[in-house]
What we know:
The chain is of the alpha/beta class and about 475 residues long. It has 13 helices and 20 strands. Strands 3-2-1-4-12-13 form a six-stranded mixed β-sheet. Helix 2 packs across helix 8 (about 245-270).
Amino acid sequence: MSTEMQGGIRISIDRGGTFTDCIGSIPVPVSEEYPTGRKEIVIKLLSVDPQNYPDAPREGIRRILEIASGKPFSRNEPVDTSLIESIRMGTTVATNALLERKGEKCALLITKGFKDLLLIGNQSRPKIFDLAIHKPDVLYQRVIEIDERISLIGDGLNLPSELTNNISKDIFQGISGEYIKILKKPDLNKVKEDLQSLYNDGFRSIAICLIHSYTYPEHEQLLEKVALSIGFTHVSLSSSIMPMIKMVPRGTSSTADAYLTPCIHKYINGFISGFDENLKNKVKLEFMQSDGGLVPVNKFSGFKAILSGPAAGVVGYALTSYNKKENIPVIGFDMGGTNVSRYNGHYEHVFETTTAGVTIQAPQLDINTVAAGGGSCLFFRNGMFVVGPESAGAHPGPTCYRKNGPLTVTDANLILGRLIPDYFPKIFGINEDQPLDLEVTTQKFQELAKEINIFMHNNNNKQMSIDEIAYG
């Protein structure tokens, strides 16, 4: 049997909201124990732990390299990537930015007369008998109307007979094959003035959505050049992001990209900054997209990253759990968010989804999400048990994470015995080696029980144990 080792270390990472999981595939001599010539190292750590490290995926990679090489890698120096062949990552950075509305401040440039188009939306009523109708959210903070207009000629595909032999310089055949006429070109001096005003007010990201740009993108491209010359760091063109005929989904997708992509780039730049120069030049760095495909780091954009983490889980269980011969569909369950999906031999995609009130037109795996996070905080208010919407996140996290966090759903599950500390990763405390803290969690539940039972006594109701409170 060959003892030759193949390739370098391959690292796969799932950066979730609370925990980051890293798997390192290490090349070893082929043997009976390792017939594939590789062994796996698994690292689990908190996604946010500023007391111990600035970036969880980078810290996971550092620990994998230490175990694989048997040598120390300092946390205070750029990580040496000479042993690494590839890094693949699924991340919830874009998801969390959208859910928590912590994306980039952005503006929308749209054809004059359509200022409120995205605010109006498509007027759909998903719950037709709901008395409390909520309009879809918009992600931009300001709208600039661009005085430009192009129009389709005739039925678009065939020129009217009177124009067949008399095509003017303002008539073009677009990308889609349709004929268009330029009725008004944008005044670039006015555009520059408006964009400079945006820039002076602190905007650095813009989305551009002009009518019929799906077939004639030149006007959007002209505006992009002006914006970049002024200093805008990110410009999302609807004609590039989603070149489709419908203007509303084209506009919402481009604004989502302008809102989320700068956050993605900030995160990626922060991640890359902790490594040596070889990461950019020699290591294959890829990110998972919402459609289940991997993309090079320089092609990773915000509006295609909303389901980045969950999509990787779907691909993983599809490859490992589904049996082609039996042909029995598999249900995927990802406890956290919580995400549920199905695989029956092919990936099920949807092309329009609404996430956190924002409708986006992009291919995504069909994943249904239920808000059931373990970080949701527990309260007793006005005689009622309340869960969330506030979240403890990864930092400080639940009480049992030993960082003085509030009581959460995770703590309730610990009290009820659903979480067993011996089986849970021992990654808490100052030295990141302590188990979940049952003692402090019990103490906090006892304090909450006092408050609840005073209320119960005053209202002639029976006293409640901490088990009953945690279960409630």
